[in-house]
């Protein structure tokens, strides 16, 4: 009866497809039309088509990122090799070294004692490697920052075999000075970073090493001359990574460290007077990430990866100027510096790397 009434209503309203609406004995509503179905001003057919298109797009993205079985790992995008001449690649970062507006690639490789860079040609391709120095014996870490205040991005390195922390002046066109040694007393130096730690407006240098002090900093007098090491972490724990960032929200860059021996993650509060507080431990071990609450406290561990092998350095920057942050890697066993293009779908670099 209901179906007959709906059919009669449809005919009365000038809709001559037969039937337009019908209700089955089980209560199912059947709609037979090749045009529009509008309910309360909403085009139902259009909405369903949009939902299906979105579902198909997500399914395609899901197939890109994951294998078919639910327990499998993320499938990375294709690798684009920049060079295979980084013997024992240890570290990589991206920065505009020649002032042309494109992020170039800077690397440290221990097997050839080399700090080098590759010019970004502007279309996601790179020139052959340009060597800055071959005097960083056991090169482990590299950082890019304006050390001498001339508005050109200089380079800082840490090398373990010669126990050196050094920097290289950028003359502004992608050419560099010889090695300028900051210290040769950073035993088995593993990492280097730069930040204004004393609030005087120029970039000081941080280093991490295997001997006491494991973490030290060097005051920049403003022209690229540095003072003697000032210890932050007095113990001889082997520190693999050091970073300066304001952890407790007091505007002073604190020091965050990661131990190579134990996986311990800890930080030291910058007191604002060029001194640092005692060690505050975030975690004792594990490949985890921690969300900073903004007051010096952290969330519980969030697993990042348990499948890292010989990748020694990673960094991120928009290498092809498409508005998406791409990823760089330095891998030790195959001497390779490579990058992975982010196509923007799902933002999965930021999510999964």
Assigned CATH class of the domain at 85-208: Mainly Beta
Gyration radius (Cα, Å) is 29 Å
What is the element string, with H for helices and E for strands? Answer: HEEEEHEEEEEEEEEEEEEEEEEEEEEEH
CATH topology of the domain at 85-208: Methylamine Dehydrogenase, Chain H
CATH architecture of the domain at 85-208: 7 Propeller
In CATH, the homologous superfamily of the domain at 85-208 goes by the name: YVTN repeat-like/Quinoprotein amine dehydrogenase
Span between N and C termini?
61 Å
Helical fraction equals 10-25%
Tell me how many strands there are: 26
Mean pLDDT equals: 74
Biggest sheet strand order reads: 5-26-25-24
Q: Low-confidence parts, pLDDT < 50 over ≥5 residues?
A: 1-17, 57-70, 286-294, 297-309, 346-353
Structure class: mainly beta
What is the general shape?
elongated
For the sheet with most strands, the description reads:
4 strands, antiparallel
Protein name: VCBS repeat-containing protein
Keywords: Signal
Pfam families: FG-GAP_3
Explain this structure:
With 353 residues, the protein is mainly β. It has a domain of 124 residues: 7 Propeller (Methylamine Dehydrogenase, Chain H), CATH 2.130.10. Helices cover 11% and strands 37% of the residues. It has three helices and 26 strands. A hairpin with a 4-residue loop joins strand 11 and strand 12.
Helix and strand arrangement:
Blueprint lengths: L1 H11 L8 E3 L5 E3 L6 E2 L2 E2 H22 L13 E5 L5 E7 L8 E6 L4 E7 L5 E8 L5 E7 L8 E6 L4 E5 L11 E4 L7 E5 L8 E5 L6 E4 L11 E4 L5 E7 L8 E6 L5 E6 L5 E8 L4 E2 L12 E2 L7 E7 L8 E6 L4 E5 L7 H5 L1
Antiparallel strand pairs: 1-2, 3-4, 5-26, 6-7, 7-8, 8-9, 10-11, 11-12, 12-13, 14-15, 15-16, 16-17, 18-19, 19-20, 20-21, 22-23, 24-25, 25-26
